[in-house]
Protein: DmsE family decaheme c-type cytochrome
Amino acid sequence: MSSMNRLLKSALALSLTAAVAYPVAAQDIESQILQKFQQGAYSKKGADSCLMCHQKDAKVMALFDGVHGNLENSNSPMAKLQCETCHGPQGKHKGKNEPMVTFGANGNVSAELQDSVCLSCHQDAERMAWHDSLHSDDASCVGCHDIHTGSDPVLNRASEVAVCTDCHQQQQQDLYKRSHHPLTTQAGEGSMVCSDCHNPHGSLSDASLTEVSVNDTCYQCHADKRGPVLWEHQPVVDDCRSCHNVHGSVNDAMLTRKAPMLCQSCHANDGHASRAYGDDDSAFTGGDSCLNCHSQIHGSNHPSGQLLQR
Ligand code: HEC
Ligand code: HEC
Ligand code: HEC
Ligand code: HEC
Ligand code: HEC
Ligand code: HEC
Ligand code: HEC
Ligand code: HEC
Ligand code: HEC
Ligand code: HEC
Structure:
C-alpha cells in the first residue's frame, strides 16, 4: 500500500473520532479537508505550483534547509507529493478560497489528523508508545518539532530544555531552585536534557521514563547507587524519590527535606529515644545531623556497616 493510501486511510479512520470532539466550524474545515484527500486532486507541478505564491515567505523557503526539503533523500516528502505530502492536495486552493492542512495548536485539523501525517512516515520502533504518551492527547508532534527550518530547536541539546519548559512551567521553576540537575542554560550548566530521563515519544513506564522504573532511570548515570550492597537502606532500593525531588529542590542534594526531619518522617522511633531534638547543638542537630554518624545513607559494603555508619 502506498504511503499516501495509508495516510488517507488513517485520515478517514480518524474523521470518525475527530467529528465527536470538534466544534462545528472546525469540523466543517476538517471534513472539507478530508474530502480533498478523498478527491486526491494533487497539483501536477508539486512544490513549483505552491512556490509561485509562497516563495516570498522566508519561513516556507526554510523547509529546504532541513531534511524534509532534501531533494536527494528518496524517503523525503520531496521525493513524494512534495508540499502536498503534508499539507494535503491543493485542489482549487489559491488562497483563502480553500483551506490546506495547517499545523500546531491553532492548526485547522485535529492533533490526531496532524500527527497521522507525520506518522505515515515515522511510525517506527522509536514511536511505538506514542499513543501511551500524554503528548498524543494534549500536544502533537508539531507541539515540539519545527519543520520549516534547518535546525529544529528541540533536536539540539542546547535548546531542548527551553522547548520543554515553554509548556512545563513547574519543571522550569524547579530548575531554578538551589539544587537541581544541570539542565539549565546557566553558565557551567546545560550538560543534561529532559530527554535523558523521559522519552518524548512515550514509553511504557510512568511519566514516559526512558527505563522501566524510576530507579533504573537514575542508575543510567548514578551506577554507584545501584546495589547489591551488603547492608541496604530499604527506601533507596524502593524509590529514589523517597528522599529526592528529581526536578530540583530548595534543599541541598535535591532532598525533599533536610535531616533530621527527612529521616524522622520514617524513623519516628529512631533508636535514640532519649534524645530531645530542640535547639541543642549536638551531633544530632548540628552539621549533617543524622548523617554525621549514618553517613552511608545509600547503603554500606562495610562488614559492620549495618547501621549505615561506615
Ligand atoms: C495562487 C496563489 C497560491 C498558490 C498557488 C498556493 N497558495 Fe497557499 N496560500 C495562498 C494565500 C494567499 C494564502 C493565505 C490565505 C490566508 O491569509 O488565509 C495561502 C495559505 C496557505 C496555507 C495556510 C497558511 C496559514 O498559516 O494559514 C498553507 C499551508 C498553504 N497555503 C499551502 C500551500 C501549498 C502546499 C500549495 C501548493 C500545493 C499552495 N499553498 C498553493 C496562495 C497560494
Ligand atoms: C514534512 C511536512 C511538511 C512539508 C513537506 C511542508 N510543510 Fe509547510 N508546514 C508544515 C508544518 C508542520 C508547518 C507549521 C510550522 C512549522 O512547524 O514549521 C508548516 C507551515 C507552513 C505554512 C505556514 C507558514 C507560516 O509562515 O506560518 C505554509 C504557507 C506552508 N507550510 C507551505 C508549505 C509549502 C509551500 C511547502 C512545500 C515547499 C511545504 N509547506 C512543505 C509541514 C510541512
Ligand atoms: C514523506 C515522509 C515524511 C513525512 C510525511 C514526515 N517526515 Fe519527518 N522525516 C522524513 C525523512 C526521510 C527524514 C530524514 C530521516 C532520515 O533520513 O533518516 C525525516 C526526519 C525527521 C526528523 C529528524 C530531523 C533531523 O533534522 O534529523 C524529525 C524531527 C521529523 N522528521 C519530524 C516530522 C514531523 C513532525 C512530521 C509531520 C509534520 C514529519 N516528520 C513528516 C520523512 C517524512
Ligand atoms: C515532547 C516533545 C516531542 C514530541 C511531542 C515529539 N517529539 Fe520527536 N523528538 C523530540 C526530541 C527531544 C527528540 C530528540 C531526542 C530523541 O530522539 O529522543 C526527537 C526526535 C525525533 C526524531 C529523530 C530521531 C528519531 O526518533 O527517529 C523524529 C523522526 C521525531 N522526533 C518525530 C516525531 C514525530 C513523528 C512525533 C509525533 C508522533 C514527535 N516526534 C513528537 C521531542 C518530541
Ligand atoms: C506544546 C506544549 C508541550 C511541550 C512543548 C512539551 N510538553 Fe510535555 N506535556 C504537555 C502536556 C499538555 C502534557 C499532559 C499534561 C501534563 O502532564 O501537564 C505533558 C506531559 C508530559 C509528561 C508526563 C506525561 C507522560 O506520561 O507522557 C512528561 C514526562 C513530559 N510532558 C515531558 C516533556 C518533555 C521532556 C518535553 C520536551 C522534550 C515536553 N514535555 C514538551 C505539553 C507539552
Ligand atoms: C533525572 C531524571 C529527570 C530529568 C532530567 C527530568 N525528569 Fe521529569 N520526571 C522524572 C521522574 C523520575 C518523574 C516521575 C516522578 C515524579 O513525578 O516525581 C518525572 C515526572 C515528570 C512529569 C510528570 C509530572 C507529574 O506530576 O506527573 C513531567 C511533566 C516532567 N517530568 C517533565 C520534565 C521536564 C520538562 C524536564 C526537563 C526540564 C524533566 N522532566 C527532566 C525524572 C526526570
Ligand atoms: C543522564 C544522567 C543522569 C541521570 C539519568 C540522573 N542523574 Fe542525577 N545527576 C547527574 C549529574 C550530571 C549530576 C550533577 C553531578 C555533579 O554536579 O557533580 C547529578 C546530580 C544528582 C544529585 C545531586 C544533586 C546535588 O545538588 O548535589 C542527586 C541527588 C541526583 N542526581 C539524583 C538523581 C535521581 C534520583 C535520578 C533518577 C530519577 C537521577 N539523578 C538521574 C546525572 C544524571
Ligand atoms: C533515605 C533517603 C535517600 C534515598 C532513598 C536516596 N538518597 Fe540520595 N541522598 C540522600 C542524602 C541524605 C544525600 C546527601 C548526603 C550525601 O551526600 O550522602 C543524598 C545524596 C545523593 C547524591 C549526591 C551525593 C552522592 O552521593 O553522589 C546522589 C547522586 C544521590 N543521592 C542519588 C540517589 C539515587 C540515585 C537514589 C535512588 C537509587 C537515592 N539517592 C536515594 C538520601 C537518600
Ligand atoms: C522513606 C522512609 C525512610 C526514610 C526517609 C529514611 N529511612 Fe532509614 N530506614 C527505612 C527503612 C524501611 C529501614 C529498614 C528498617 C528495618 O529493616 O527494620 C531503614 C533503615 C535505617 C537504618 C538501619 C537501621 C536498622 O535497623 O537496620 C538506619 C541507620 C537508617 N535507616 C537511618 C536513616 C537516616 C539517617 C535517614 C535520613 C537521612 C533515613 N534513615 C531516612 C526507611 C527510611
Ligand atoms: C552521634 C552519632 C549518631 C547520630 C547523630 C545519630 N545516630 Fe542513629 N545510631 C547511632 C548509633 C551508635 C546507633 C546504634 C546504637 C544505638 O542503638 O543507640 C544508632 C542507631 C540508629 C538506628 C537503628 C535503631 C535500631 O533500633 O536498630 C536508627 C534507625 C538510627 N540510628 C537513626 C538515626 C536518625 C534518624 C538520626 C538523626 C535524627 C540519628 N540516628 C542520629 C549513632 C547516631
